[in-house]
Amino acid sequence: MAATMRFKSVEGRWVIAAAVLGSGMAFLDGSVVNSALPHIQRTFHTQLTGQQWVISGYLLTLGSLLVVGGSLGDRYGRRRVFVIGLAGFSVTSMLCGLAPSIGFLIAARVAQGVAAALLVPGSLAMLSSVFLPADRAAAIGAWSGLAGVATALGPFVGGWLIDAVSWRWIFLINPPLGIAAIVIARRSVPETRAEPHQSTIDVRGAVSLSLGLAGVVYALIEGPGHGWATSAVVALVGGLAALVAFALIETRTADPMVPMSMFRSRHFAGANAATFVVWGAIGAVFFLLTLRLQLDLGYSALAAGAAT
User: Fold this and answer.
1) Gap between the Cα atoms of 28 and 71, Å rounded
2) Is the pLDDT of residue 198 over 70?
3) What's the pTM value of the predicted model, to 2 decimals?
4) What dihedral do alpha carbons 298, 303, 304, 308 form, nearest 10°?
């Protein structure tokens, strides 16, 4: 289907609403959970590594499968994959909110990241494929701006929910939002997909990237707390080897998930390096800042979210 939608049309606003609701939930869960970590610690009597996995388990699957989610949307329909991601995110959010143990919560967070990897690229791809080229920049700007507002409000809104009700409600609030986004998407978003020759899925690249990131993240979380036991060292070496294999696979496959040729551009490589450093620092700061404010300085979840 050719892009025919105008940014200022009623139909266009509904498409943006669906995209913002879907991606906003995913971005919100990337920031709001930090505020709940001290309460999760008290509920499950977990150590620092358990809290780290609550955050990293979600980001690990989201980051490693993000491009795969986009490829699935190109092949099977962007709206369809987006709706599947919304449904999966709603169900896994419910499981997170009802988690009886820290292990169950971490597993649900990992599954939640998989669902987010389907809906986040789908939300952007829907905008790119249904809006006219002249209106595309405005639509994407509205999407990114409104999703950014959701991310910024996350610690504050989450802190209020945690103090007023329970930390579980930062997850249980997602299903109603997800259902609303599904209804809007099915009614207002036209289905689009890429041409068959543009929608191949790089399975080997996806597997090697996922294994590489999982190995490195596992080692960095478990290693320091256990004196760098053999399992952590093996995970680190295996993860680094898988990442090297990923780079080699991407240079040899006909339709790579991440074309290595892009990094020949100094602008592209520099922008990605800067993004990695900035967001790596921000993620670490917000994780530790929340724990410092609540556990050491006695802030409530709402006060810590407001301070953040």
Assistant:
1) 24
2) no
3) 0.83
4) -150
